[in-house]
Design goal:
Layout (H helix, E strand, L loop, with lengths): L1 E5 L4 H13 L4 E5 L2 E4 L5 H13 L3 E3 L2 H18 L9 H9 L3 H12 L3 H19 L4 H7 L5 H12 L3 H6 L12
Antiparallel strand pairs: 1-3, 1-4, 2-3
Helix pairs in contact: 3-5, 3-6, 6-8
Length: 186
C-alpha cells in the first residue's frame, strides 16, 4: 500500500519517516521523497498513531489526490535544485510534466490554486535558497554558483537574488547572521 507524506525534502527526512513507520509496527518496503510503500494495510489506529508520530517531526499524511500531485511537483523541484548534480537542459515545464506524466497547464493551474503561487516562483525560491547555501559554504565563486545552478549569467543570478531577498549576493555573503529558510517552508 502506498502512503503520501507532505514536507519530505531530504535523505534525513526519509530516515526519520522510516524510523517512525517502524515504531508503529509498519514495515516499509520503500521510502522515497513524499511517497512510501508499506507491506500491509494499516489499521485506523495505526494510521492515527502514524499521523501523530509524523506530525511531531513536521510531516503529515496526504489523503487527497490534489495534495499528492502538489507534493510530487514540490519533491521533483527540490530534487532538481538540491539533490541533482546536473541542471536540466530542457525547460521546467517539460521536466515537470514529463516526470508526472500529466499536462503542464493542469499541473500549473492546480499548483497555483492550492499553493497560492506559481510553480515557477516556487522553483525560483528553491534556487535562491540553494544560492544562499552555496554562498555560506564559500567554496564557489558567484560565477561558479551561477554555472552550477544553470543561470545564464552572474548578472541574471544577482538580479534574481536581489529581487527575492532584497540583498545582493555579495552583501548577503558578508552578513554574520545568515537567515536561510527551511525548504519545506518555501
Amino acid at each position: 500500500m502506498k502512503l503520501y507524506i507532505k514536507n519530505m525534502v531530504c535523505n534525513r527526512c526519509k530516515m526519520v519517516v522510516r524510523e517512525t513507520l517502524e515504531k508503529q509496527g509498519l514495515a516499509p518496503k520503500t521510502v522515497e521523497l513524499g511517497e512510501i510503500e508499506i507491506e500491509n494495510q494499516p489499521s485506523k489506529n495505526q494510521l492515527e498513531n502514524l499521523q501523530a508520530g509524523l506530525k511531531h517531526f513536521g510531516f503529515e499524511l496526504i489523503d487527497d489526490k490534489k495534495g499528492r500531485i502538489i507534493e510530487k511537483i514540490k519533491n521533483q523541484i527540490v530534487a532538481m535544485v538540491h539533490h541533482s548534480e546536473e541542471n536540466p537542459k530542457t525547460n521546467l515545464s517539460a521536466v515537470i510534466s514529463g516526470k508526472l506524466k500529466m499536462d503542464y497547464n493542469y499541473l500549473s493551474n492546480l499548483f497555483s490554486e492550492v499553493e497560492g503561487t506559481t510553480i515557477e516562483k516556487y522553483y525560483i525560491n528553491q534556487r535562491i535558497e540553494k544560492v544562499k547555501e552555496l554562498l555560506i559554504y564559500d567554496e564557489l565563486s558567484l560565477s561558479g554558483i551561477a554555472d552550477e545552478l544553470g543561470y545564464s549569467s552572474v548578472a541574471y543570478l544577482s538580479n534574481q537574488f536581489k529581487k527575492i531577498t532584497g540583498l545582493t549576493p555579495t552583501f548577503y555573503k558578508g552578513l554574520k547572521d545568515h537567515k536561510r529558510r527551511n525548504i519545506e517552508d518555501l
